[in-house]
Specification:
Helix content: 25-40%
CATH class: Alpha Beta
Distance between the termini: 47 Å
CATH topology: Spore Coat Polysaccharide Biosynthesis Protein SpsA, Chain A
Radius of gyration: 17 Å
Number of strands: 9
Order of helices and strands: EHEHEHEEHEEHEHHEHHH
Length: 249
């Protein structure tokens, strides 16, 4: 079985982090992959960094945000399974190999694993053993459990799901995964696949209230019950805790 991965990185003015991201992809122990970076027209040193890597396919032009950048990357992929990793996050060295091993065991269209939370300087904060979820759980109980950097999708299913919704500012991954779960099964790997850099300038941390509103909107549009008092109470609690730690948006 010769599985090819397509990895996409959306980026904008993250020159101080993106080398970690790039190196984590290019140094994977599993070598059958393509790497595509979609830069939003950065005015820092990002483009100069990208020019140094001949193994990367990349473009740099203005876009309408992260989801739009990823969609541009999806138009360029040739792999069997896809994932995107943001320009401040990075993979574990055996991430693709572990997903490849899972693919040999399962025909699931969505494969996911665990995630490390690290600080600005890559110091480990915690290891998150990802909650095993299905469509019902995401729609009705908890949407804030998706560990997107540790999630991989079967590319052929894009014909059924469509691309990311660029009208969503924060939870386009939540919406995207819901559509995948309507047409395929999931497979969980109990291994750490990626590292999420936990700092106050990430997209969702800068837009915490928007994130909560979008979660409710997407859930209700897909027949969920995120308007229930219990769910709203739990979501509000998470939003308040994030604001205490990172400040308001």
């Amino acid at each position: 079985m010769d599985i090819k991965f397509s990895i996409i990185t959306p980026s904008f003015n993250n020159a101080h982090f993106i080398v970690d991201t790039i190196e984590s992809v290019l140094s994977q122990t599993y070598k059958n992959f393509e790497y595509i970076v979609i830069d939003g027209g950065s005015n820092d040193d990002t483009v100069n960094i990208l020019k140094k890597y001949k193994a990367i396919k990349w473009i740099s032009e203005k876009d309408c945000g992260c989801a739009d950048a990823i969609n541009k990357g999806l138009k360029l992929i040739t792999g069997d399974y896809i994932s995107w990793i943001n320009s401040d996050d990075y993979y574990e060295p055996d991430a693709l190999f572990n997903v490849y091993e899972a693919i040999k065991k399962s025909s699931a269209g969505l494969i996911y694993g665990n995630l490390n939370y690290v600080d600005y300087g890559k110091k480990l904060i915690s290891n998150d053993k990802t909650h095993i979820y299905d469509l019902n759980y995401l729609l009705n109980y908890d949407a804030d459990i998706i560990r997107q950097p540790a999630t991989f999708f079967k590319s052929e299913l894009l014909l059924k799901t469509g691309n990311l919704n660029i009208d969503l500012k924060c939870v386009f991954d939540y919406d995207f995964i819901i559509r995948f779960l309507k047409v395929t099964q999931t497979y969980y790997i109990d291994k750490t696949l990626a590292n999420y850099r936990y700092h106050n300038n990430t997209l969702t941390r800068r837009n915490i209230s928007t994130q909560g509103k979008e979660i409710i909107k997407v859930s209700l549009e897909n027949g969920g019950r995120f308007a229930s008092k219990l769910v709203l109470k739990n979501l509000l609690k998470k939003i308040i805790l994030k604001k205490i730690y990172f400040g308001s948006d």
